[in-house]
Specification:
220 residues, alpha+beta, Glutaredoxin, Antioxidant, Horf6, Chain A, domain 2, 5-stranded mixed beta sheet, 3-stranded antiparallel beta sheet, 20% strand
Length: 220
């Protein structure tokens, strides 16, 4: 299965370190970030899970839940969590999904159909493509996806920045430019006429090109 932006995120039931969940119900009316790992006790993922635990309060402020997934049993996750806290200084404070039958990994296109029905005997290299981040909106649709190799640690500060942009552009009819940070100017999309823009931005905007109009970030 291949997922695309604005498609419905596959729903699933799974065991996690915080108990069983039904994914869409667990998301509720907020946002969610699902990030996956090829196997427990892998070095790069250990650093990522610890860092994400430290960032959790920032996601909480944005009404966004975070949840990890690893193609291993939940019991292993709990043991791994001890190593993560010891080496990274943060206890894992969010649920981690056990995907021993590979159902979630295949539903989200991280493993191909026919990859099998068990995580037993699979190495991290076998699961190397289970290295994705999915940002999911309150409508349960996929808003963004990031895919990394096993050898490159993910930048979760960038995921937070991405979430800020997604939430801003979902609330206001704007787009964010390259390297945008919260509080900086944004772009009025070409789909918004000058007349409509004038009604929304009475203080005006800067026109660099007819298709490139820059305005202060909406504050409400």
């Amino acid at each position: 299965m291949t997922l695309r932006i604005n498609e419905m995120a596959p729903d699933f039931a799974a065991d996690t370190t915080h108990g069983p969940i039904a994914f869409h119900d667990w998301i509720g009316d907020g946002w969610a970030v699902l990030f996956s790992h090829p196997k427990d006790f892998t070095p790069v993922c250990t650093t990522e899970l610890g860092y994400m635990a430290g960032l959790k309060p920032e996601f909480d402020k944005r009404n966004a839940k975070i949840i990890g997934l690893s193609v291993d049993p939940v019991e292993n996750h709990s043991k791994w969590a001890q190593d993560i806290e010891e080496t990274q200084g943060h206890a894992v404070n969010y649920p981690m999904i056990g995907d021993t039958e590979l159902k979630v990994a295949m539903a989200y296109g991280m493993l191909p159909e026919g990859a099998g029905t068990t995580s037993e005997g699979r190495t991290a290299a076998d699961n190397a493509t289970v290295r994705s981040v999915f940002v999911i909106g309150p409508d349960k649709k996929v808003k963004a996806m990031l895919i990394y190799p096993m050898t490159t640690g993910r930048n979760f500060d960038e995921v937070l920045r991405l979430l800020d942009s997604l939430q801003l552009t979902a609330k206001h009819t704007v787009a964010t430019p390259v390297n945008w940070q919260p509080g900086e100017d944004v772009i009025i999309p070409p789909s918004v006429s000058n007349e409509a823009a004038a009604a929304k931005y009475p203080d005006g905007w800067k026109t660099l090109k007819p298709y490139l109009r820059v305005v202060a970030q909406p504050r409400d």
